[in-house]
Specification:
The chain is 12% helix and 38% strand. The chain is built from four helices and 15 strands. It has a four-stranded antiparallel β-sheet. This is Lipoprotein. Keywords: Signal. Residues 1-18 form the signal peptide.
């Protein structure tokens, strides 16, 4: 099965797939809850409205800032908040334990450490009307070890770029890792597929092919299985002044020992700047003044996304 076609919805499917063989912070306005922040610029000022900006300061945890069009920070809170036309939504995660069934003839299930999975969703601050983005389930049958993680790679307006990976030992010769990507539309409340609309996808795949061959333990054997690498993931990268580009990750099936660990356990992959983007992202390709001024006054801040309702 090609790397781009692997399902990654419920925990049972993950397990089946993974079985295999075997600085100082710059001064900002006092931290306040975003919900209590100012909602509009002064009426005499010409404004495009407030912007929600999220990212990380140096090596800190994600935080979201409400920023006026002149770059003033009006509010700040930990975590990730996305503005939509229907209101602001908070990204939430919850880790849960999963009882494992273990391997036949191995450690009894009652003596196994539980596995862990991560649930992720968007919701208003009252946590009602959730948009469930990742629901891995709780089936640990035939599994000796399990660890599932979710990462929000970035956002473009209401579009969220979500990465999942699961490391599992399913009673084979060794454990395995399986990765998955989904693009979530917070306006529509559903997953969408825009990777096939990446304008230069085929040309990028051709560029990735020789790069994947370099250093491969047996490139000729790998090319027999899949000559053209699969596009498995796209994600936003913002420049120092907030300019947007979309990077694309291509992967190709390979032997377990040949894997570079950048995607799944049986793949090699490479990341390339796409030099273009799906038309739907075009409105966010040029940052508003608020984003530019915020970044200028916050050296060391890594922008991961901005939005405006």
């Amino acid at each position: 099965m090609s790397v781009s076609a692997r399902p990654f919805v419920f925990l049972a499917a993950l397990v089946a797939l993974a079985s295999g063989c075997g600085g100082n912070r710059p001064a900002v306005a006092p931290a306040v809850d975003l919900a209590a922040g100012a909602r509009a610029a002064p009426p005499e000022a010409e404004s495009d409205g407030e912007v929600l900006i999220w990212g990380k300061q140096d090596d800190g945890l994600p935080a979201t800032y409400r920023v006026a069009d002149d770059g003033r920070v009006l509010g700040e809170e930990p975590g990730i908040v996305i503005a939509t036309s229907r209101g602001e939504l908070v990204w939430r995660e919850r880790e849960a334990e999963v009882k494992l069934g273990g391997c036949e003839g191995g450690t009894p299930p009652e003596n196994l450490e539980p596995g862990t999975v991560t649930h992720a969703w968007l919701a208003p601050r009252d946590d009602q009307a959730r948009q469930v983005i990742v629901d891995p389930g709780d089936d640990g049958a035939g599994v000796g070890e399990l660890s599932h993680h979710v990462e929000l790679l970035g956002s473009v307006g209401p579009y969220l770029f979500v990465h999942e990976d699961v490391s599992v030992f399913s009673c084979g010769a060794h454990g395995n890792t399986v990765a998955n990507f989904k693009l979530w539309d917070a306006e529509a409340g559903k997953e969408i597929d825009l990777m096939r609309h990446l304008p230069n996808k085929e040309a990028l795949a051709r560029r990735a092919e020789p790069m994947l061959d370099e250093g491969d333990m047996d490139p000729e054997e790998a090319r027999k299985h899949e000559a053209i690498p699969d596009l498995v993931q796209i994600f936003p990268v913002y420049g120092e002044r907030g300019g947007l580009r979309i990077d694309a990750q291509f992967a190709r099936d390979d032997c377990y020992a040949c894997s570079d660990g950048l995607w799944s356990g049986y793949t090699r992959s490479v990341i390339l700047p796409s030099e273009s983007m799906p038309e739907r992202f075009a409105p966010w390709s040029t940052p508003p003044v608020a984003v530019v001024k915020f970044l200028q006054s916050h050296p060391g801040f890594t922008l991961r996304g901005w939005s405006r309702g």
